[in-house]
Amino acid sequence: MEKMEKIAFLGLGRMGLPMARRLAAAGHPLTVWNRSPGRAGDLTEAASPAEAVAGADIVVTMLSDPGAVADVAGRFTADLAPGTLWIEMSSIGPRAVTGLRARLPDGVGLVDAPVVGSVGPAATGDLGVFAGGEDADLDRAEPVLARLGRVRRCGGPGTGAALKTVVISAIVASVTVLGEVVAVADELGVPREEALEVLSAGPLAGVVARARSTESDFPVRLAAKDLALAGDGPVLAAARRTLLADPSIAERDLSAVVGAARG
User: Fold this and answer.
1) Which residues are registered as beta bridge partners of 131?
2) d(CA 132, CA 136)
3) 10 Å Cβ neighbour count for 78?
4) Which residues face 60 on adjacent strands?
């Protein structure tokens, strides 16, 4: 019978909670921790990151940004025992992953495995998972990651974080540009739905579908954060400024940037 490794899951936000629940449902002994306590429901909740990782075979982090990961990592990294595998699933970019690897105690492995997808796929195990790391660590992480979605092994350390940065930058910038294009349609008297219908019949079909999504839950503020991970290229920087220009949509899904074009 397959041994189910004990998992500590840190971060119970929009994505983290349904992901943790999937791992618990698969039979993994699970302890969770969240900055704001009380979200764990029937899951076993620790009082601190260090308490959560005590005795864990695998530690999973799913946090909001590089600063949050660095802060929480500082509260548990020294407590990781040799043989522990840390699976970092937040969107923090490859530079931050390199910094985390430099802090690892001897004998502790790290896989960077950020995801694409939203709350629905997180609950059903249909996320896209981009995994980077040493081969032995990826072999060990893959059965856990496969419970969360479709795993793409990207290569060595940092490659999962790098691919996620590329992919999410393209998605976020494209939806942001679509918002501006819809504003142009409004100014020229082209009915919005007609413009979107024609665009959806061409190469921008996927972008239009994402902009029309009613099931996604990717806050605009986090989309802007992800663009910052890609550097200061002029187009991506302009898209980020656009996302940050309207604080009223900061907590709404990215698709709101298209609706905001009405204003």
Assistant:
1) 153
2) 11
3) 10
4) 9, 87
- Tokens encoding 131: 């995994």
Give this prediction's pTM: 0.94
Tell me which fold the domain 163-262 belongs to.
N-(1-d-carboxylethyl)-l-norvaline Dehydrogenase; domain 2 (1.10.1040)
Does residue 109 carry a pLDDT above 80? yes
3-state secondary structure of 130: strand
Query: What torsion do the CA atoms of 157, 162, 164, 167 make, to the nearest 10 degrees?
Result: -150
3-state class (DSSP) for residue 27? coil
Separation between Cα atoms, residue 60 and residue 70, nearest integer Å: 14
54, burial (CB in 10 Å: exposed 0-12, middle 13-18, buried 19+) = middle
According to DSSP, the β-strands at 115-116 and 127-132 are: antiparallel
| pLDDT tens digits for range 28-86 | 999 999 999 998 999 999 999 999 999 999 999 999 999 999 999 999 999 999 999 99
Tokens of 173: 């910038």
Per-residue pLDDT of 215-231, as tens digits, reads: 899 999 999 999 999 99
By C-alpha distance, which of 118, 110, 109, 111 is closest to 149? 118
Domain 7-157, what fold? Rossmann fold (3.40.50)
Residue whose C-alpha is closest to residue 9's, from 39, 38, 42, 45: 45
Domain residue ranges of the chain, discontinuous segments joined by +: 7-157, 163-262
Report the alpha-carbon angle 66-70-73, nearest 5.
Answer: 135
User: What token pair was written down for 231?
Assistant: 């550097």
